Every structure is written in C-alpha cells, then in structure tokens.
Amino acid sequence: MKAQWVTDALTMALFRRGFPKGVIIHSDRGSQYCSHAYRDLAAEHHLRLSMSRKENCWDNAVAEIFFHSLKVEAIQYEPIMTRDEMRHAVFEYIEVDYNRTRRHSAIGYQSPLHYEQQKVA
After folding, report:
1. pLDDT tens digit sequence for 67-106
2. CA–CA distance, 95 with 59 (Å, rounded to integer)
3. DSSP classification of residue 18
4. Neighbours of 7 (CB within 10 A)
5. Which of 25, 34, 37, 71 lies in the 20 to 30 Å Cα band around 60?
6. How many CB atoms neighbour CB 36 within 10 A?
7. Residue pair 80/60 in contact by the 8 Å Cβ criterion
8. Three-state SS for 24?
C-alpha cells in the first residue's frame, strides 16, 4: 500500500468536486491513510478525517458492500483482463453504473450523483 496512491485519488476527488471544505472522508486504519502525506493533504484542504476502529469491519460496512458489488456486478464473470482493461472496467462501473444510475437504499433509493447534487444545491 502506497500513500501516493491515496493522495493522488484524494487530489483527483477534490479537483472533480471543486475543492469543498469540511467534508468528512472515511477510511480504515491502513498505513497509507495514516501517512503524513495523506493527513497533511486532508488538513491543507480543510477535510475531516474519520477512521474505523481497530479490527472492526462494521465501521467500514459501506466500503465493504461497495467492493462486494464491484466484484459481483463488474468483474467476477468477465474473462481475464489486462491491467488497462481492468482499469477501464472499474472506471466504467464506478463513474457510469454505480454513481450515476445504481440506486442505493441507504440514501433513499437515489443514485449517489443525484444525492450529492441535492446536498450541494
């Protein structure tokens, strides 16, 4: 696990959402999320860090459910893919299927995109 990967992902998320302030970002206690680089980036952009309790998978249930859905709905029954094909498949699943069209019971059976647009407006 590399801190650079999560700082790059956080930077991209910040850019795509117009550098919001005060947003809570949740993670597990992986070393990459505890790194100075990640914590400093979050502090620089006035983000609030939230971490699950040690060895408590229930704190991270939403992430666990997401990865289960990704595996079952997008990857499990696909033929073996190259690294680039896998990147494309994961990107398509997240950005098209999961965030824009898939409805989630935890947010009133709306897509994450629709839910976020309501909260920002």
Report:
1. 898 999 888 887 888 989 888 989 999 988 888 888 888 8
2. 24
3. T
4. 18
5. 37
6. 8
7. no
8. strand
CA dist., res. 15 & res. 18, Å (int): 5
Structure token digits, residue 11: 């930077």
pLDDT in tens, 24-46: 998 888 899 999 999 999 999 99
Three-state DSSP at 104 gives: strand
* Contact by Cβ (8 Å): 6, 25: no
Contact at 8 Å (CB) between 65 and 98? no
Q: Where are the beta strands (DSSP E) in the chain?
A: 24-27, 48-51
71/49 Cα distance (integer angstroms): 27
Q: Cα separation of 3 and 117, whole Å? A: 30
